[in-house]
Predict the 3D structure of the following.
Amino acid sequence: MSTASVPLPHWITYGLIPVLNLIVAFLISGFVVWLIGESPLGALSLLIEGALGSGEGIGFTLYYATSFIFTGLSVAVAIHAGLFNIGSEGQAYLGGLGCALAALALDRFVPWYVTMPVAVVGAGLFGAAWASIPAFLQAKRGSHIVITTIMFNYIGAALMVYLLVHVLIVPGKMAPETRTFLEGGQLPKLGWVMNLFGAKLGAAPFNVSFLIALVAAYFVWLLIWRTKLGFEMRTLGVSPTAASYAGIPYARTVMIAMLLSGALAGMMALNPVMGSSARLQVEFVGGAGFVGIAVSLMGRNHPVGIIFSAILFGILYQGGDWVSFEMPNITREMILVIQGLVILFAGALEYMFRPALVRIYQQFKVK
Amino acid sequence: MDYYDILINVLSSTIRLSIPLIFTALAGLFSERAGVFDIGLEGKMLGAAFAAACVAYITDSAWLGLVAGILCSVALSLVHGFASITNRGNQIISGVAINFFIAGITIVLGQAWFGQGGRTPQLSPASRFSPIALPGADVMREVPIIGPLYSNVISGNNILTYLAFLAVPLSWWILFRTRFGLRLRAVGENPGAVDTAGISVSWLRYRAVMCAGILCGFSGTYLAIAQSAAFIKDMSAGKGYIALAALVFAKWKPVPVMFACLLFGFLDALANFMQGKQVPLIGAVPVQIFQALPYILTCILLAGFIGVATPPKAGGVPYTKER
């Protein structure tokens, strides 16, 4: 019997294997740090200190994590239906447009809690709309979703730059950005949550959208494991042929999965646009769409796993800033190195450790 | 400036901008024809550019730079091969991982070694591939029509440019006229049949990704030490993805690949030229339209509205030998 099909208990598949992947990624990153003449352990302790050592650090960590939960969920929903959506970056970018339009239209008239639902819907709709074309091309015309979503990232970037430079820009200003939203278009900070634990939020932009992200994670869990649609998506993801024999409509399921994926990616914009900078800027997504790939793979495409791995990447981002400040030799881009390694080991090489683990596990079980 | 001068100008920058695309798209051609999708072209190109610039700076030799670029790129190909051929991992995820890793590591190492914000120091002329004047370029310059075309577009490029145009027929010959090429294409269409014939699917695919690595090495080297005189962070700027688009656009065939790359290079050159200029009747065309055009065209093609692009059948699927 091949080792690939031996069932392993959940704690190994969802706990031990991701942790092993992470440890290998960290060991190689540590080697890189050592290579450039710095102390890996020193860098690690700085990283943890920067991300978790103060209320403000934790606030920033959770702020980053909020974006990554949304994009991680976005990637995961698509993966469950067997679709690898590399377009979360572009969908989040367009989501920012929907969110900003809602805020620009309403911020003068109503308080934030009225604007927020409209912005959530706006961001979701724009994100879904941007995902709908690659989704349609995949469902009906058989073009490869990976290629089309990559193309749409670039088309979306060009479109948004055009809009920000020529249409939405504040007349007379040089910076390609919209006007600053008034209070009715800004999400309140979650300072009180930090106060509960006796910590001060400081300047960190940790805001209400974190709670929306948690709610979204709950709904994704409900959808994937507790509804007929989720079952159909998972069937399609495991075997398109089996799904078609079972009478699951391919085109419809692909469309719905991608629209949901795009909507989740779009909602990520709430966090930086309305929660932090209070205006729409170029490059506000900042790669969070791509981080979502690593977050989802690391979290085994499960909402709970995604929340944990999003927080982990939040720690990497915030701690990484701190490290690059204290050790100028280690630049912020070290995060990309770790991210690449995590994607490699958790995603592409996910079966590398499995045969060995199966052997060890079976030995223990016999006893 | 009269119209002919403008045309010559745009054409010569078309050539310059197409070369990295041609090398990279041919790289993708070898890999994908053998059934291994390669999203990591971007990363390999960037890695090769960094390695080439570093080695060229240290050794003062453009050729050693090229060797380093190729070695780096082939090493990354082997990682991709290890993940997607030996371990049967997801080819796309592996490619994405390589892109991230390289985007980060080039800047981290560049900053640590040279302390110039992730770029390498300016290269001396000896450590670069400099333009070559073809015989008679100066004499021809005065001849109307053909003269400027010969001396400014055809002549005056560096050696890698000519190698790129040489690589196109060579790739065609390897893929369609040699036994290796036949087997390589077969392994992308029906690996089971190749396996039945007693030929190793893995070893064929490894050789295909190594060919891709070599070609990406050329394109990265071109970026860093022929077109520019240093490595600049993120200097591949999405060219790997454009090359992928060109590959789809050319329906996985070598000669059309060259023309697709020239087309995308031309759009890029036109965008640079049009910046801030007025078009009669239309007014200023936003530069973003030209930037987005290759991607839009590729999507339209993929949708089957201008012919059908059928990828190799076994593309993206790891081969599992029957047990």
